[in-house]
Specification:
It is a single chain. 45% of the residues lie in helices and 18% in strands. The chain has helices at 5-9, 51-60, 84-97, 110-121, 143-150, 152-158, 161-170, 176-187, 191-206, 235-246, 262-265, 267-284; strands at residues 11-18, 21-28, 36-40, 64-68, 103-108, 126-132, 221-226, 250-255. It has an eight-stranded mixed beta sheet with strand order 1-2-4-3-5-6-7-8, sandwiched between helices. The longest helix has 18 residues, at 267-284. The protein is globular.
């Protein structure tokens, strides 16, 4: 369902070698004078989770880039280290390699933190940002939650591998197709790489990025999550409404009949929301 060979045949495949990893990514043909929509997947997933979105954007005339974050998909091994900052730097290198002037960021979960950090670091290049199943990177959890998050990798190592992988996959979607996709992608990772990547994703939640207490996203911002997103004990669903209220430029949308990978569980609905957001962004500009 999510591997579209016809679509990928229309995208040019590139690689970037950096800090022990070979990063694989794909770009549609486009006019470099217009913004490039960049899709960044969640931890332990891969570029295929956005196949339905890239296809919809291509059909609507939007250029797109999709990539395998270091350690994921074809971009193995993970390299010297894995955390949100190094992934942001990888993406910056890709953007500068192709001399892209303006980008629109779409990030899922860990990819949402990558998108937020890049928006903070390179505001002049960002035209709009959309996130799926993510929290505000500037919100530092309570002391107790930070302790729990820091011990999560130890908990992962204590769990039998088959249970750990299955439990993670079941939390990604409400449909069997999405759960099978998530299970297959995380099975492509060794146990140690899987735990390292999941630990890097968790660190993006609890570590203070030092943006400042008054920071907000100064670009058109689409905040979404699945109606039935149970990941992190429903944290993304619980925190999204207050996050939306804090942001001055936010459009907040709940994707019905969808879990954490909301764009995969209900792609038609999500694509409609995303395309309307992009159309609205263009009118505002």
């Amino acid at each position: 369902m999510y591997k579209n060979d016809d679509m990928l045949s229309l995208m040019k495949h590139y690689t970037l070698e950096r800090r022990g990893a070979v990063i694989h990514y794909w770009i549609t043909q486009y006019d470099y004078n217009e913004p490039l929509v960049i899709f960044t997947h969640g931890a332990s997933l891969d570029h295929q989770m956005f196949d339905m979105q890239v296809q919809a954007l291509q059909n609507a005339g939007y250029p797109a880039l999709t990539w395998n974050v270091r350690g994921h998909g074809m971009s193995k091994p993970v390299g010297k280290e894995f955390h949100v900052q190094i992934v942001v730097e990888d993406l910056e290198k890709i953007i500068y390699k192709h001399q892209v002037e303006e980008v629109i960021l779409v990030g899922h979960s860990f990819g949402g933190y990558v998108s937020q950090m890049l928006t903070f670091l390179q505001p002049e290049k960002i035209k709009a940002i959309a996130v799926i199943g993510c929290t505000d990177i500037t919100e530092v959890p309570s002391f107790g939650m930070r302790i729990a998050y820091r011990n999560m990798s130890r908990m992962f190592r204590m769990m039998p591998e088959s249970i750990l992988r299955k439990k993670f996959a079941e939390g990604m979607g409400v449909t069997e197709t999405v759960q099978n996709y998530a299970l297959n992608t995380n099975k492509e990772l060794s146990r140690e790489a899987f735990i390292e990547i999941m630990d890097g994703g968790v660190r993006a939640i609890y570590e203070d990025p030092h943006f400042g207490n008054d920071y907000f996203i100064q670009h058109p911002f689409l905040l979404t999550h699945g109606e039935k997103d149970s990941a992190e004990r429903g944290t993304f669903v619980k925190k999204a409404p207050n996050w939306a209220k804090r942001e001055l430029n936010c459009q907040y949308e709940v994707i019905p009949n969808a879990g954490h990978n909301a764009n995969q569980d209900n792609p038609d609905y999500f694509n409609d929301v995303l395309l309307h957001f992009l159309g609205g962004y263009e009118r505002r500009c």
